[in-house]
Request: fold
Amino acid sequence: MKQWGGRFHKAASASAEAFNASLPVDIRLYREDILGSIAHARMLARQGIIPAASARQIVEALGAIHAELAASPPPLDLALEDVHTLVESRLRARVGDDAGRLHTARSRNDQVALDLRLFTRAALVEQIAALAALQRALLERAAAYPDAVMPGYTHLQRAQPVLLAHHLLAYVAMLQRDSERLVDAYRRTNVLPLGAGALAGVPYPIDRQYVATLLAFDAVSPNSLDAVADRDFAVESAAALALVQAHLSRLAEEWVLWSSSEFGFIEIDEAYATGSSIMPQKRNPDVAELIRGKTGRVYGHLLGLLTILKGLPLAYNKDLQEDKAALFDAVDTVLACTRIAAEMVAATEFRRDRLAAAAEADFSTATDLADHLAQRGVPFREAHRVVGELVRYCLASGRTLAELSLAELQRFSPHFTAEAVGLRAAQAVAARDVPGGTAPPQVRAALIAAQHAVQASEDWVAARRAAHPTVDDLVARAWE
Ligand code: ARG
Reply:
């Protein structure tokens, strides 16, 4: 049964019908669609726009349809077109012609915008929850190795020693910004478009604020054309998700490197690695590689969404139907990657011996020796040159900087004192005692601050989950 058959003389070709249909993709929105319809029906009755008895029947039937769809996935009959018509046809099967009253003062254009906003806001909340769990895993690992020292890198060359905890906390900080961006996207997503009608508003005395309250929206959209044409919230969410995925891919790449024999910094738990079908000795970091590999499609979805909107005239255009496949896959992919990353991190054991050896090697305290001279009045550029010569001397004689005696050091500069002898990575780390630096007291403080930030994210998630109504909540609600 078409919603729009009245003015048509002939049926759509089966091929056009199949091409047009979005049901296989948007069936995923059945819960959101029913939630929105219940709120709309309750508002219509409260405003005296449809009879209260019809509204009660409709709401009860929608609750039953929701249970039915949750229990068994419906056949994807493409003639039904989309999820909105599927739900309406089931409603008609239950309540007869009264079903037709539900679409008073509503269009599929504002309906689909509503459904997608309900979906997106819930997805943002679950993504923030997953980020908090990954942050918790990183914080737990950081706390488990409070004094482990490792090489910090620039250009993937060993540069200066850092605490392993400091390195892990760098990821916690990135993910914290991600959560903040997602919360910000939520703010602009959580706006009610319903009431825009097809594009111009509706000629009924509707109460948009009441619908917003039922559905826990923070605001109602200020312009009906914009309300049905706007998918900025999807783009913003996809952009924030793309950046999450960028961060996950950086972490994944380090896990791949660190698990190699060349680094040997970590053992990826066997539960998150796989063997090779031909090389019996292999233990491959597939989970990390896949996280890295899935990044391309997430970026692709962002570009896809942006391109759908490019040059699109106001207001609703069918092009917008293409938004869902992109957004759904971006949401699913990033959520799955975040969750598996949390498991993988939690199951990672770090090899302190390998980290420590690497942290001492390759003249990692060279900057500290230069700083030693600079702190004793030598201009830093001059100190840099002196230590460069020291490194050359060590390379030629097969020594390390820590092995040089004071007499040897003083041959290169008379400003060296006993404190420069036998300098170790742990001292280099301890010296960087500035806010945001890698010295143990700074890292301890940063760890505590990060725990508070993650707790705040978790509290936000709990509050939003509690605020979002379920279908059962809205069915059971007293009539006003
Ligand atoms: N399936 C459509 C979509 O996803 C729903 C809105 C259809 N509106 C219309 N006027 N054809 O965008």
Summary: The domain at 109-151+162-208+218-357 is CATH 1.20.200.10 (Fumarase C; Chain A, domain 2). The radius of gyration is 30 Å. DSSP finds 20 helices and six strands in the chain.
